[in-house]
Structure formats: structure tokens, C-alpha cells
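Agenda item 2: magnesium ion complex prediction
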Amino acid sequence: MYAPSSVDAPRIHTPDFITESALTIPIYGMLGEDGRPYEGADPSGVAKEIVLAMHDAAVFTRLLDERMVAAQRQGRLSFYLTATGEEAATVGSAAGLEPDDMILPQYREQGALRYRGFTAAQFMDQLFATEDDLGKGRQMPVHYGSRALSYMTVSSPLATQIPQAAGYAYGQKLAGEGRCSICYFGEGAASEGDFHAALNMAAVIRCPVIFFCRNNGYAISTPVSEQYAGDGVAARGVGYGVRSIRVDGNDFLAVYLATQEARRQAVSEGVPVLIEAMTYRLGAHSTSDDPSGYRSRKEEEAWQRFDPIARIRAFMEAQGWWDAERDEALRQGYRDEILAAMKTAEAKPAPSLARLIEDVYAAPPWNLTEQYEALREQVRANPDAYPKTAGRIE
Ligand SMILES: Cc1ncc(C[n+]2csc(CCOP(=O)(O)OP(=O)(O)O)c2C)c(N)n1
Ligand SMILES: [Mg+2]
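Presented output:
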């Protein structure tokens, strides 16, 4: 690498610009569409238990998403956001980490959280804002967080987590913990200034962070063709001096192996690494969105055949690891567990109203206390408008 002033840089004598297509990054893939390893791709480094664990977490996530969209349609839940089609990207990457590595999510990474062991009950306590919600009911649905599972709470403003991840990883390096952080974000969030600041900072001060981009084709209704003209997000990493790879985001094995290797390099060399996982958001952006207004059925159907869960199933079948009875029992068990957890959460009390102003300050300052008292009076005076909270005033 040459500094601009380097006397060693080779000289050219015609004004040859580097073309915008000079860097066309290939895609790292292990499994073809049919679930068979590509010729020359060796899947033997991925243990059967890991494949099963990834598959199971992805199936749980898919079923959870289906059930919660239905619950939103039934008016039981205000909002939900599915990860359908992106399970290999989130679950596969979580599997490639160590359990103590910090995850800084965007919001569509419930698969990673599930892989770490978040239970159906914990999902429901957050979604329904019960008194057992780890976030004390203060966030809108899908803003999960878990200290025990090293999963930073989701932030709604896009790209918040990207510079935070660089800083967090730098702290881990200074503490000599031998850990790294992973930061998930969409290709849309990579248009935010914070993405650029984070990559530059991480490269210059050498932070052991994995920048994991889920390139799912859309930022709500804006397709990637209207988002950037360069070679995606991986090419930007190279520009900042961050080693970068593009992977097939619907291939569990490739995502797992790439993340494992990224982790090894990040921790052993103390450097950032960027992974761009090419995938497709099969569902709507959220339950507030209707994709039929901006993309065709044909396009969606074309992507169905890359479904990551179908592909890992085909791989398992080819390995002789598939057990139809186990699969049926697994799915039925998850469905029952999710439904039961939802019913339990719906019947649980809301957190006490006072939880609203805790945790930011050691003791709530006068202005928060004043606002709390006004709110308390409002709830007291209109109990019918706040049926869950009315009985939860201290
Ligand atoms: C700073 C900011 N701007 C806009 C929004 C509204 N918004 C929420 S999600 C989203 C699209 C993000 O797309 P992408 O990063 O590709 O993630 P994906 O939803 O595709 O997973 C937008 C514009 C926001 N939350 N924060
Ligand atoms: Mg996107």
C-alpha cells in the first residue's frame, strides 16, 4: 500500500483512470442451489452438530416470523419484522463466532439471537412488553437485547451500531480479552455517514470488529440499483483498508466458514474485517410495508429457489444427516412452544410504570420525575385508555 506521497509508487505516463468496474469482487460459495458442494469446495470443516444447530435455529426463526406476522394481522401485536430468506446470513455468522463475542445488531438478526439461545418466552416478553421483558417494556417490538447472550439492544436509527461496534471492539482489544465484535447492518444502512466513519476509524486504529453487511436487495422500497453505482459494499471496505469478502448469504456453510475465518484474523491480528452477504429479503420490510407496490411477484419467486433452509436441507440429505421424523417433531415442538409462549406473554402484567424512567441515571433527575408524575396522573384519570398499565402504578 502506498501513501499518496510515496516515492516508491510506480509512475505512469498517460492519464489512465482506474475504471469503476476494475474491482469486481467474486462470491465465496460452498453449496450450489441444489445443496451439493461445488467442485473444489470442501465442506469437511463443518461438523454435523454445527449444521444441525444452524438448521434448527433457522427453522425456529422462520416459524417465529410466520407466527408473529399472523399475530400482528390478528391485532395482537403492533409491529413485527421478519428475516425470511436471510436466516443463513444471520444464523451462519453467529455460528462462526465464540459465544462471548459481542453482537451489535441492526434489527433483522433474530436468527443470531436464537442461535445464542434466546428462548421463545424471551422473544415474547420483549414483543408483548411484559414485566419480564429484559428491556423493561420500554422499546417497540423486535428491539431485543440480552446482556447474558452478549447481544446489544437494537437501535432504531440506522447505523447507530456501526461506530459503536468499532469502539466496543477497540475496548476489547485494549482489555486483552481475545474477543471480537460483530456488527450487522443492511446495505441501506451502509449509505449512512456513520458506516464510513466506523470503517475508517476501525481500519486506522485497528479494531477487531467484523462488519457484516446483509445485502438483501432493498432498503424498504429502494432497490440496490437505486442505492449505489459501485460494486456493492465489499468494495468500500477495500477503499478504507479493511480486508473484505463477499459471500453467498443464502449458503450456511460459506457464511459460517467466512465468519470463522474473519474472527480468526480479527482476533489474532487485531484488525477489522468486512463480510458482505448477498441475500434477498423474501418478506415485506416490516408489517407496515407492502412490497407489491414496488417489486414483482416474478422477482420474489425467482429468489424462492435460493431459500437457504431448503438448501441446507438438501445438503443434509446428501450427507445422510436428514431425518424426516426428527424434522417434523422439531417443527411441531417449536410451533407449540411459540404459541404457548405467546399466550403466556399476552396474559402477563405489563412492567410497572416507574420502570420507564430508571437506568439512565443513578437516581432519576427532577425533570424525569416531574414527567413521570404527570404521566401517572394521566393513566390514573384514563384507566380505560391504558388497560395494561393502569394497575401497574407505584
Ligand atoms: C437514520 C434513519 N433513517 C431512516 C430510517 C427508516 N428506515 C428504517 S429501516 C430502513 C431501511 C434500511 O435498509 P437496510 O439497511 O438495507 O436493511 P434491511 O431493512 O434491508 O434489512 C429505513 C430507511 C431509520 N430507521 N433511521
Ligand atoms: Mg437491505
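Discussion summary: The two ends are 63 Å apart (CA to CA).
Owner for follow-up: CH.
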